[in-house]
Amino acid sequence: MTGGARGRIRAFFEQNVGKIVTTREIAEVAQIHDYQRRIRELRNEEGMKIRSYRDRSDLKPNEYILESLTRDPSIGRRVSPQLRMEILERNGFTCQLCGRTGGDPDPTDPASKVRLVIDHLTPISHGGGNERDNLRVLCSACNQARSNIEPPSESAANLLARIRRAPRRVQAEVYEALRRTFD
Ligand SMILES: [Zn+2]
Predict the structure, then answer these.
(1) By CB count within 10 A, which of 11, 18, 94, 162 is most buried?
(2) How far apart (Å, rounded) are the C-alpha atoms in residues 147 and 46?
(3) Ion ligand 1, residues whose Cβ is below 5 A away
């Protein structure tokens, strides 16, 4: 995780998840003048769900809120072209699982060729970011195989959605088990 002002602001938001924080508190934590830019980076590069009065009418212009600890995958997954090239060069333009390079035949479909993609070792949905040691080169075939076995993220929202889809009998069992745990 990036340190410095950005790291301090990230930690502050995460400690206050679901609570409204003010620009004054953020400025104090950040200890820099240009904290607004760091907030933009946390939203646009790390996919943190930080909302302002521009997103929510219940917030005042000096208020922000981190809505949840899960990252927005579509935003956080974005790796800049420069960073992509850096990781490709570091990994020798080679898939780190099978050793294929771009243009090699696809093992699942020999008629087509693999592409090289940048993979997150810890997925964004599990709190991973675009740090260099969390990135590696995979071929499209290995990447596809990996995403098929990746379990869904264990956020409360996702778990609840799965429980709601379960049969009534299973829901009752979950309810009973949780009630026993928290009684
Ligand atoms: Zn591969």
Answers:
(1) 94
(2) 20
(3) 95, 97-98, 100, 139, 142
Name residues whose C-beta falls within 8 Å of residue 168's C-beta, 6 or more positions apart in sequence. none
Q: What are phi and psi of 119, to 5 degrees?
A: -105, 145
Q: Which residue ranges in the chain fall short of pLDDT 50?
A: 1
> Is the CB of residue 147 less than 8 Å from the CB of residue 117?
no
- CA distance to 20, 75, 166, per residue, from 48 (Å): 15, 9, 30
CA dihedral 81, 82, 84, 90 (to 10 degrees): 160
Count of helix runs (H) and strand runs (E) in the chain: 8, 7
pLDDT tens-digit map of 103-151: 999 988 888 899 999 998 888 767 788 899 999 999 999 988 877 666 5
Inter-axis angle of helices 35-44 and 23-30, to 10 degrees?
100
101 Cα–ligand 1 center, Å: 8
Question: Model-level pTM?
Answer: 0.45
Nearby residues of 24 by Cβ (< 8 Å), 6 or more positions away: 62
